[in-house]
Amino acid sequence: MWPHADLILWRDLPPRVLLPRLVLRSVGRVERRTHLGHGNRETWRRLLSRESIVVYARGLPSAAATGTLRTVRGERLPDGVRRSSY
């Protein structure tokens, strides 16, 4: 896939933007009992646990802080893929 990509858009939002959005989205999903796929739903128990997506997101270093870009799975991007000057 990487050799065929012309552009990779990476939004590295600061925690002050990311965390409120994530919390609001997650609370909304719990309250509406939104189906997330394969029968999964977000619950208050999961949202308030140590395995919560919110707890996970708080621990993520930003690309700006680390100086490296990574894929969604946390892998380093292949050589030759670099940050755009835009």
Explain the overall architecture:
By secondary structure, the chain is mainly α. The chain is built from four helices and two strands; from the N terminus they run αββααα. It has helices spanning 15-32, 44-47, 53-58, 63-66; strands at residues 35-37, 40-41. It has a two-stranded antiparallel sheet. Strand 1 (35-37) and strand 2 (40-41) form a beta hairpin. The longest helix is centred in the first third of the chain and has 18 residues, at 15-32.
- What strand order characterises the main sheet? 1-2
Mean pLDDT: 78
- What distance lies between the first and last C-alpha atoms, to the nearest angstrom? 22 Å
Q: What class, by secondary structure content? A: mainly alpha
Strand and helix order: HEEHHH
pLDDT < 50 runs, ≥5 residues: none
Kindly list the characteristics that best describe this protein.
mainly alpha; 4 helices; 86 residues; single chain; 6% strand
